[in-house]
Amino acid sequence: MGSYVPSTQEQRLEMLHAIGLKSFRDLYKDVPQSMYLDRPLDLPEGKSELEVSQAVQAMARKNKVYDTILRGAGAYDHYIPSIVKYIPAKEEFLTAYTPYQAEISQGVLQSIFEYQTEICELTGMDVSNASVYDGATAAAEACAMARDRKRRLTLISGAAHPDVINTIRTYAYGTNDEIKIIPVKDGKTDPDALKAMLTPEVSAVYVQQPNFFGLFEDAEAMAAPVHEAGALYILGCNPIALGIMKTPKDMGADIAVGEGQPLGLPIAFGGPYLGFMATTTKHMRKLPGRIVGETTDDAGNRAYVLSLQAREQHIRREKAGSNICSNEALCALTAGVYLAAMGPEGLKEVAESSMAKAHYLCRELTKLPGVKLRYDAPFFHEFLLDMPKADEILSALDKKNILGGLPFDGGILWCATEKVSKQTLDEVVAIVKGVLA
Amino acid sequence: MKLIFEKSVPGRRCAILPACDVEKVELPAELKRDAAPLLPEMSETDVSRHYTELNQHVHGVNCGFYPLGSCTMKYNPRIDEEMAALPGFTGIHPLAPQAAVEGCEEVIATARKYLCEITGMADMTFQPAAGAHGEFTGVLLIKQYHDSRNDTKRTKIIVPDSAHGTNPATAAMCGYQVVNIPSAPDGCVDLEALKSVLGDDTAGLMLTNPNTVGIFDENILEITRLVHEAGGLCYYDGANLNAVMGVVRPGDMGFDCVHLNLHKTFATPHGGGGPGAGAVGCKSFLAPFLPHSALMEEPGHIQVRGFRGNFLVVVRALAYLLTLGREGVPEAAQNAVLNANYLMHRIKGTFAPAFDRICMHEFVLDLSEYKKATGVSALDVAKSLIDYGMHPPTMYFPLIVHEALMLEPTETESKETLDWAADVFRALYELGYKDPAFMHAAPHNAQIGRPDEVKAARTPIVRYTKA
Amino acid sequence: MTINPDLKYSKSHEWVKMDGDVAVIGISDFAQDALGDLVFVNLPQVGDEVTAGEAFGDVESVKAVSDLMSPVSGTVCAINEELLDAPESLNNDPYGAWIIKVENITGTEELLDAAAYEAHCAAEA
Q1: pTM of the model
Q2: Topology of B78-322 in CATH?
């Protein structure tokens, strides 16, 4: 049996006797006998570390680890530099709690301050929080922070990620608020439909850039009508694209959010990921979650603290804008290390290379008979193809240890990143060609 | 310490990627960034040394004693990290076909089976990413249940005044009016106060047991019966499950749904503030209301985040559960309770326990008399502990005790550590009478002295700006 | 602690000065001292209705937040926006740093004069 209790049997008895008790049962004298669990748990016997290692590895082996992944849809297989895996695994970073005690937590606090700065730089915004759970919750929290007493209706682009839409819907269900989906036209948010929906009740409009189909939205053009209607404009952005794409601030957004997973986090069957949130100074006090601020200590030295805490649940209780406390600090640290390892040039290369490979794959596949690009508009690193024999194609790729695009809405949503070489892409095209022949 | 941006050298970089081997594609001009983001430009040595320097100014539970009450800072086993880092987990796409993810499904199904057994629940979701997120999910189960019965008059959630701030904040996020009820003097639920607020507008009760002062509420069956009689449901906040896992089950106490903090009770690391995992379990009648991913599973359900949750945290918790097994789980709980009682016993005679009786996994010291006598506050004592290499306990919580210090040693601390900690508390107790000024100025050996939090809040500097 | 003899006070420690038909509202020296260093003020908007005995905003210190209760019912006709940038004025000059002005007053809480308020503070201290 494995155990992490260091005290020996003798010491345990010694401690029990010191507090005047005879048995462990005496510690639970307040637990009524009727509910005291008088049987062993229906769990297997405890195992040694070696046995645990073997048992869990056996489970991992039942998964298929593809050599090549051409599927995105919210989880992106970018290269993770080696150093990005090792730094967050350091035991101090790994096993610390939230840095409430600043004097013993400057390392964590400074790493968050640096992360906040990097998110501000990527988004063009003035202030970022220390992270939220993931991109979907970041979007939902942004929609919540935009509501006030009079404006409660949120408009969401139908071209946003289905999980993001459903998460916003769930948060709105919680507060008894309404959401409406903005129709999609040719794969993009329909700007005319949006304009018609902008009533005085609208608190915010959420648009994803690039959107779920990989297309660049005409995001900047939609900012003016949203603001004229008195609503806030929320853009959900891919952080890799932000290496080359116009910032949400420059596209007119009031709040920028997104899924930070592409910044050095493994796809890992969906988590842990990282939700980033940034806004302008005007809305800083409505931003949920932890925020680290710079100050000085009693000797005048630069110091970092969790700041603006009176926004949060532990002080404001039922009047807090959100109940969030634990966030994804270690993932934010990971993103910070990733951005430092890549630098501005490296991030740009990842973005450009991912975009270039996706376009190459798209170009080559659409040369094949019956394969058509559903939406012919500028896209980043994802694109939706209509193609015959979709199941057979994916199955043929699978046999070669390649995870093809995601079957979606009758087509296949493909994604390419910098990880996949031209040679591999050519193999993919050859396999598809073989199926279609 | 310099900021990473202050160490940046223009033109410096790491060699990570090969040159792009296909034709470059230009972004349309109107979509291009105006200027490159200000990101650090560093060599790999620079990056490594910077973060190593930061890391040296962090205190984790694996570095030293961390008796932070209500946070269950137990040792985080390395094997759990190794399992979570297996490429067979980290490299799995959440939308890969079913046949390619059978191992992930087995991890989730096994963890679900074990945790349902430990909590006395019928089903469980791992989608919530943290404790507060689990609370949100759990209370949404309650909301959907009432809605499914068209029982729309239930608009109130009852929360004891000793509760963690997330409880009332969660109820508000779920559209409920919060009814705070006063605690009895021992921190337990005041049955009369509870009865006086129960009615056909009661949606539910949020409760943790053992409660926030570390006492098991012996009236728990009566409490859950009263709430059910009024037509409400009972939500168990699993923050304090470490005291009772394998000993008594929330399901058997009468609770309908629970959240667990895998990053507390099940030894997964807290990472300086996440990622955690707030698994939510429920009785079978609530199972149809559990959240699902619209893309990964099926639409038509609530959903509290993308995909199916912090999967790698579940891997860690499963490795921990496999290690402890059927005997190890209650053993951990019993020793957590033993350690708390032993430490309280050893501190007695100096700082006074707020409740002088057998506690569960944590206990609260009340320093109000001590402060009157010496002028030394709970904050001063907490900051003084830092100089001894001990992380301070939770301060000024729960709100129902003044000058509170809340200690939770956990089961992974040895008797020697507890004896040492008690000696440190005794030494500080005496120091407060001799040299209170020294304690007002603590810490003396930390990287920084006490920070000016008023300045930070009045004139917020929340990002670096290049001079 | 100072008490301005020219003002009226609520039991929740706001002061009121009638300026014609307009009520000028702030917090007392006793209140600012009890609250500690204030770091932010959440203000209502001009045009909002306020109700006597109910919160119209709140003030934040580093570790606490406290509701500001309106001593009168009416419509907010001005807010002191300078407090958004300089909340410390409430600490430094409590009787100079007004918070809101209210017009169209339809009701008033029971207000204390300076002597009665002094006794009220003494009982609370």
Answers
A1: 0.96
A2: Aspartate Aminotransferase; domain 2 (3.40.640)
